[in-house]
Amino acid sequence: MAGRTPQTSLDWDKLRIFHAVAEAGSFTRAGGRLNLSQSAVSRQIGALEESLDVALFHRHARGLILTEQGDLLYRTVHDVFDKLSQVETRLTDSRESPGGPLTVTTTLAFGTLWLTPRLKQFLDMYPGIVVSLRLNDAELDLGMREADVAIRFMPPRQPDLIQRHLYSMTYQVYAATEYLKKHGMPRTSADLDRHSIIAYGDDLDRPPVDTVNWLLQEGTTPGRERVPVLRVNNIYGIFRAVQSGLGIAALPQYFSQEATNLVQILPELHGPAVDAYFVYPEELRHSKRIAVFRDFLIRKLAESDG
């Protein structure tokens, strides 16, 4: 590139692609997010580098790493796009009725069983809002706008996020009617020693709540833990295993409202309380879309009593 006269004008479309590549660390992953082919993304980056007469990425077999000049451009472009996003939010929310895109992330279990069936009512109330639901037990980065809002079951670890307490729930003990017909109803927590317990696992995954496997110790002698018949690293997967009649598990209380074949057993047992939080970035504090969605959640949770 040396010896060429750089062109000073910057193409916004190329900058958008550059920003996506810098965050993805790969032409292929960025292309997937942008709905472009890997070759098209590569050509756009090459054209941007040629227009600036600098290399923006170190290319190697494991992916892409920003050069010093690329890092400078990325930080500048990221700030500009962030400010543009804030302006877009304010312009959209300045209308009388809230409208525009709203990306929501929460856990697979809560999103599938509780939230999704209620979204129709929300969208009927606010037809101008376009919801994208990202169900993921891992925490998406709200600061990097991977989502606009999150419903989480532990306080956020990221700084500069606003959190609103939504409600508190407990885990209760459930089994399918099919399982109870075959194995009988446990009458005390000690009876669980003779039953099949389904637990959260494995150790490589951070559980959705720290005390999720409390049932393995409930009613046992100190220091002893039951061996589960199955470990699943997802609460929804545990729910489906209980539904199939495989065994007994502790599940969030909202599950009983969504599954007709589950029976609560040992009703005196309640796991540790779990708090749900509504979380969003500081720059979206004044968003009407977020405000009406938050108020909708609070109202529906109150109606269903968690």
Explain what this protein looks like in three dimensions:
- This protein has 9 helices and 12 strands.
- The N terminus is likely disordered.
- It has a 5-stranded mixed sheet. Strands 10-7-11 form a 3-stranded antiparallel sheet.
- The longest helix has 26 residues.
- Helix 1 crosses helix 2 and helix 1 crosses helix 4.
- It starts with 11 loop residues before the first helix and ends with a helix.
- The chain is of the alpha/beta class and 306 residues long.
Features:
306 residues; alpha/beta; five-stranded mixed sheet; 12 strands; disordered N terminus
| Helix-residue proportion | 25-40%
DSSP strand count: 12
N/C terminus separation: 61 Å
Helical segment tally? 9
Radius of gyration: 25 Å
Q: On the 0-100 scale, what is the average pLDDT? A: 84
Largest sheet: 5 strands, mixed
Shape call: elongated
The topology string of helices and strands comes to HHHEEHEHEEEEHEEHEHEEH
* Main sheet strand line-up: 4-3-5-12-6
Low-confidence stretches: 1-7
Alpha-beta classification: alpha/beta
Fraction of residues in β-strands: 15-25%
Can you summarize this structure?
The chain is an alpha/beta fold and 306 residues long. It has helices at residues 12-24, 27-34, 38-52, 68-93, 108-125, 177-183, 235-243, 255-258, 288-304; strands at residues 57-60, 63-66, 100-106, 129-135, 149-152, 161-169, 171-176, 198-200, 230-232, 249-252, 262-264, 274-281. The longest helix is centred in the N-terminal third of the chain and has 26 residues, at 68-93.
Ordered list of secondary-structure elements with their pairings:
Layout: H1 12-24, H2 27-34, H3 38-52, E1 57-60, E2 63-66, H4 68-93, E3 100-106, H5 108-125, E4 129-135, E5 149-152, E6 161-169, E7 171-176, H6 177-183, E8 198-200, E9 230-232, H7 235-243, E10 249-252, H8 255-258, E11 262-264, E12 274-281, H9 288-304
Parallel strand pairs: 3-4, 3-5, 8-9
Antiparallel strand pairs: 1-2, 5-12, 6-12, 7-10, 7-11
Helix pairs in contact: 1-2, 1-3, 1-4, 2-3, 5-7
